[in-house]
């Protein structure tokens, strides 16, 4: 290792929403923070409407409010009320969310009757595009002095001498701590030997943008059928789940023929797909790390826990991890944390993830 290598207080792997929000939290506490992101380009059609829409829960919205980020995050919705464009919101009444697939609607929610909720200026639920959220968080992090390096995927690391040496894209970086915010297939988690346990998937989920010859055979909105579930937004935005045990996910290319076959199966129609513009798959695989810290390496967000996106929880959980971890790690690095403070990150956040 060269003598002149700059040592950051914290190196974060991954400039997703959790890595970026954590970087802001650490910088707020005065630490030097380097974020290494594998992707060159932060923009992707999958991070935009309709598939990049993410529901935010009350604790997340309040966290953004407290950090003065909420106005910027909500700005596009104020401009064009884009929350009404998400496919699952294409219904006569405004959906407020769902519990295990049982939907509830905003006109039946009276938050003043929630005994555990203190009155506050932040709203109780909203949706945001991933791309915009990451843009706002990256802009805030950069303005605060966080260094974000893109096109540098973390390949591995060694813990030694009161710090962590991180290898990324042929370069070497040194941090006093390394935080893995590198998503569900986290390299940091694997390289660190963290145990990851849970349940295997029951379905493959599809988010597809298609052209169809006879789209009128599908019913707009969310539909449960004896063979699966689909949501359809005109003219061709479809999300569907196929109970194949997760067999298809990431094992085969997503072709128009395959999408047509799954769509026919889950909708119980003979609809014809004539073109496929955008497609991705996901599952309800639910896994969680059994420890969130090993020495000076810590996991947060999807790197620490993954599960079905249908509950709209992963991002909210991860941002909660960041909020919990940031000030505790900062106090630990400064040397003024009481014994056990950092361990409370795991004891508090693991049950929530679980
Ligand atoms: C279809 C769908 C709908 C969803 N809807 C919701 C919702 O409504 N509400 C909700 O709360 N959650 C939702 N989620 C889950 C949510 O998107 C994730 O939980 C969230 O993105 C996790 O954030 P993260 O920062 O931990 O990981 P990610 O968003 O995966 O970001 C990880 C980052 O790390 C980078 N990276 C990967 N490997 C490396 C490496 N080796 N080195 C450096 N960088 C690396 C990646 O490029 C990426 O930028 C949904 C997910 C899907 C798939």
Structure explained in plain terms:
The chain is α+β, with helices and mostly antiparallel strands and 354 residues long. It folds into 2 domains: 7-197 and 287-353, FAD/NAD(P)-binding domain (3-Layer(bba) Sandwich), CATH 3.50.50; 204-283, Alpha-Beta Plaits (2-Layer Sandwich). Helices cover 27% and strands 31% of the residues. It has helices at residues 17-28, 58-66, 70-80, 130-144, 187-191, 256-267, 314-334, 343-353, and strands at 7-13, 33-37, 53-56, 95-99, 102-105, 126-129, 147-150, 154-160, 163-168, 171-180, 196-199, 204-212, 221-225, 228-233, 237-242, 273-283, 286-289, 293-294, 297-299, 305-306. Strands 1, 2, 7, 8, 9, 10, 18 and 19 form an 8-stranded mixed beta sheet that branches. The protein has a 5-stranded antiparallel beta sheet with strand order 13-14-15-12-16. A 3-stranded antiparallel beta sheet has the order 11-17-20, with no helix packed on it. The longest helix has 21 residues, at 314-334. It is globular, with a radius of gyration of 21 Å. The mean pLDDT is 92. Bound molecules: flavin-adenine dinucleotide. The site of flavin-adenine dinucleotide (FAD) has 30 residues, from α1, β2, β3 and α7.
Which distinct ligands sit in these coordinates? flavin-adenine dinucleotide
Q: What do we call the CATH topology of the largest domain?
A: FAD/NAD(P)-binding domain
Largest sheet properties: 8 strands, mixed
Report the top-level CATH class of the largest domain: Alpha Beta
CATH superfamily of the largest domain: FAD/NAD(P)-binding domain
Please state roughly what percent of the residues sit in beta strands, choosing from under 5%, 5-15%, 15-25%, 25-35%, 35-45% or over 45%.
25-35%
Number of helices: 8
* Unreliable parts: none
Give the helix proportion (percent range).
Answer: 25-40%
Mean pLDDT: 92
- CATH-derived architecture of the largest domain: 3-Layer(bba) Sandwich
Helix and strand string, N-terminal first? EHEEHHEEEHEEEEHEEEEEHEEEEEHH
From the spread of the alpha carbons, the general shape counts as globular
Radius of gyration, CA atoms, in whole angstroms: 21 Å
What is the domain total for the residues?
2
In whole angstroms, how far apart are the ends? 39 Å
Number of strands: 20
Query: Which structural category do the helix and sheet elements fall into?
Result: alpha+beta
